[in-house]
Records
---
Amino acid sequence: MAPKTAHRKGRPDLQGSLQLDEHLMTTAAKIFIEHGFEGASMDQIAAAAGAGKQSLYRRYANKEALFKAVFTNHLARKQIERWDGEMAAFEANETVAAGNPLEELREIARTAFNNLFETETVDLFRLFVGEQRRFPDLRDEMQQVVQTFEDEITERLRSAERQGLFRKDVGQHAARNLVALVIEGPLFQALLGLPSVDTPAKRCAYFDAAWTTFVDSMVSR
């Protein structure tokens, strides 16, 4: 009879630890969304994750630290990493990259707009709004997500201006205006559960109208 394989004891290896971190973050996000900060507990999150409380407390000293990690790592970091990956793929697409900078800008704005309406993203933003007084430092994390998007927009706006597609008097607020139209405006409506963006068809119509409004205010006449 072949000898039984010995099982390693103690802490998991690096890969196992990273997988457990990700699992704990996903589970914590779900519990916080369902029960809010006050209604969730470390015991509840550990049980839902199928992990020992020791594993959870070894990583996060308390519920406040875990809540912050959900936004810093699970929402903000993931959004930025995803955005960077999408932009790399976008720039590698020779057909798009060689096109009109207005079309490039439109696709970038549409990508950010579509990412916004993933269910968990909206739910986490709603949770953030409700708890921001308790965790004011998390505003910097949310701002970093928006700033990453604004930087890409600014680069394309400058290219369009150099080619004479936009007026030269639009100023430095153009990127901020587009963010307000395609991110902050619809996000506010989604957080309130307004019907104007509650279906894919309505969101498509919203984006098209927002884009037309922006371009009409920017193009050279």
---
Amino acid sequence: MFTLIGVGVVVLIGIAILITVVVLKKGGGGEGGGGGGGEGLELLSHNIQRAQEGGLVYVVGVVTNHDPVQYFNVKVEFDLFDSGGQPLGETADYNGNLAPNKGWEFRALVLEENAADAKPKAGGGVTGEKDGG
């Protein structure tokens, strides 16, 4: 009799684990952050920064992955503006893999000389493909 109860408990635990894995793969149960193509990707900060040497200009900042799964092909994109708010162009940076619950310090090269402001593209400026989804 105790053997049947033990087997039943093991089966129930197995079912609970299976349900948990399925829910996590579908993106449920995780903390969400706003951010475009990946629900768990979030642009935390960004600013325009001039390199100390060479005069290159970058949009630098941090993107984080709030999900318990990795993202592939993560891209952060910005529209660039001059000091008068006129559009100048765009810039982007790319990361092939962003691990679960990790951050990425991006550096997007700015080619427009007069860029004074960078705004994330529509949808939060961050896209990526969730592993398994």
---
Amino acid sequence: MSRTIANTTTAEMFAQTTPEAFLYFVEISHSSFDTIRIVNNTTALTYNSNSYTAYPFMTALPPDTDDLQYRSVLRLTNVPLTYITQARTIAGSRERAAVRIDIVMAGDLTAALSTVSGLQVDKISYNSETIEMSLTIDNFLTEPWPGDSFLPSTFPGLF
């Protein structure tokens, strides 16, 4: 699964030095709290009509291949108490939190270079300073096929 990236963007990515920055806009949503919107920048920004709080974090995006299961990691450091409370909510809930990551060049906040959506918090660990989330995308290849078994007890008209 390959992506088409503009030549100017590719040149910026591979340049030894560049004035351009790549920003990661992250949304963490759960039904128990308002959506958390953060960006790895020094100042807050508006993107897609949403306000994103400037916050330092590290992420490892899933590989861009068809044969591997998508796994990603999102690590927040020096977290405020509100984020710890929300991490506890995610950890104690049966509902998984949804995560979306948009990668955007700082010079052009109108178009995302890449979007990783459909991520869900699989595991979460936290302490007073750090929250680490293991993110995954449900793999449809592990779903049983066919979904139902056609037995005389459940489908008597077939037999």
---
Amino acid sequence: MKIEKIRQVIEEYEELLISLGAKPKQFEDYDKVGYHPEEADLDHLCYMTTQMPELLDHGKKEKVCCWLGFIQGVFFAMGVKSLNELKNDSRPDEKEQQ
């Protein structure tokens, strides 16, 4: 994906998360015994979307793409977006294909 497309997807996901009631909050209990993903709800994903533009600014495109994949996996697992919607999110815009 081109950087512009990545930034667009990040913005769309942040808006979606906020519309679902998420607030950017870093979740710090991932290493505890008996961790359950629903405890982090969508706040940590929202936090990630706030950090990703800066990572792109510092040339960390590969890391951002990994984070996008993680967010998409959670969206799919939670039923927030279908697999086809997620695939379409990552596809180049029509003008990019020409």
